[in-house]
């Protein structure tokens, strides 16, 4: 699924790296960007939580939604990674996004390699009779006791600019939830002309993402 090679530091096409984790994203998105948020319950219990977050961190949400994922590059341990914006409890940014620090390869309990920050991939999406190739880079991995997932940002060639995150959460009653958040805008004048189709496709994919882990115990 993944490959290693020379890391190509292609720039992201937006500035607010990590903002999908801002508590007030839906109220105060990055200027010029449209936010969206979806959440659904996908099961209950510790085993369900573990299964879901492993699937999330191995691109299975995308693949189960009909998107082909081709991993282009995985940075070596001594290459740079992203540190996203950090926010306080009231949604104020307290630490700006930065680039730096080591990336560490991680594995699921069964030994499956998990995606890491800095990984680049091309998503192949079929929509309205067209094939769209959408390059992205993983900008952060969420690794907390009860919240695990990742966010990727867009690279040049993607039809939109922005970020999307996929987080599996275990609540105090043992329920397991999947949350998908994003903010985006068309990446060019040509894609702005197709804005209504892009928004419709994003809504369709958001629903597919929420269904991707249901029944996948």
Summary of the model, kept short:
With 217 residues, the protein is an alpha+beta fold.
**Number of helical regions:** 4
Task: Give the H and E element order.
Answer: EHHEEEEEEEEEEEEHH
How helical, in percent, are the residues? 10-25%
CATH H level, superfamily name: START domain
The first-to-last residue Cα distance is 22 Å
Q: Any idea what the shape is?
A: globular
CATH topology assignment? Alpha-D-Glucose-1,6-Bisphosphate, Chain A, domain 4
Largest sheet: 7 strands, antiparallel
| Mean pLDDT across all amino acids | 80
User: Any idea how many domains?
Assistant: 1
Output the CATH class name: Alpha Beta
Any guess at the CATH architecture?
A: 2-Layer Sandwich
DSSP E strands, number: 13
With strands numbered from the N-terminus, the spatial order across the biggest sheet is 1-13-12-11-10-9-2
Q: Ranges with pLDDT <50 over ≥5 residues? A: 1-9, 96-104
Radius of gyration: 17 Å
The secondary-structure class comes to alpha+beta
Strand content range: 35-45%
Report on this model:
This protein has 217 residues and is α+β, with helices and mostly antiparallel strands. The protein is built from 4 helices and 13 strands. The strands form 4 sheets. It has a 7-stranded antiparallel sheet. Strands 3-6 form a two-stranded antiparallel ribbon. The protein has a two-stranded antiparallel sheet with strand order 4-5. Strand 12 (160-170) and strand 13 (175-186) form a beta hairpin. 35% of the residues are buried.
């Amino acid at each position: 699924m993944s490959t290693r090679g020379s890391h190509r530091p292609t720039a992201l096409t937006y500035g607010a790296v990590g903002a999908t984790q801002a508590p007030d994203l839906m109220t105060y998105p990055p200027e010029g960007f449209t936010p969206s948020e979806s959440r659904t319950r996908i099961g209950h219990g510790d085993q369900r939580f573990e299964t879901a977050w492993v699937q999330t961190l191995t691109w299975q949400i995308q693949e189960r939604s009909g998107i082909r994922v081709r991993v282009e590059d995985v940075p070596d341990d001594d290459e740079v990674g992203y540190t996203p914006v950090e926010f306080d409890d009231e949604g104020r940014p307290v630490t700006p996004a930065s680039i730096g620090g080591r990336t560490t390869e991680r594995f699921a309990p069964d030994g499956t390699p998990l995606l890491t920050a800095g990984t680049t991939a091309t998503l192949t999406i079929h929509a309205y009779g067209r094939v769209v190739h959408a390059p992205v880079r993983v900008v952060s991995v969420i690794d907390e006791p009860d919240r695990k997932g990742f966010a990727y940002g867009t690279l040049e060639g993607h039809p939109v600019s922005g970020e999307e995150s996929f987080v599996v959460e275990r609540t105090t009653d043992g329920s397991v939830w999947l949350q998908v958040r994003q903010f985006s805008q068309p990446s060019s004048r040509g894609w702005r002309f197709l804005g209504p189709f892009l928004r419709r496709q994003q809504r369709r994919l958001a629903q597919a993402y929420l269904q991707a882990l249901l029944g996948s115990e």
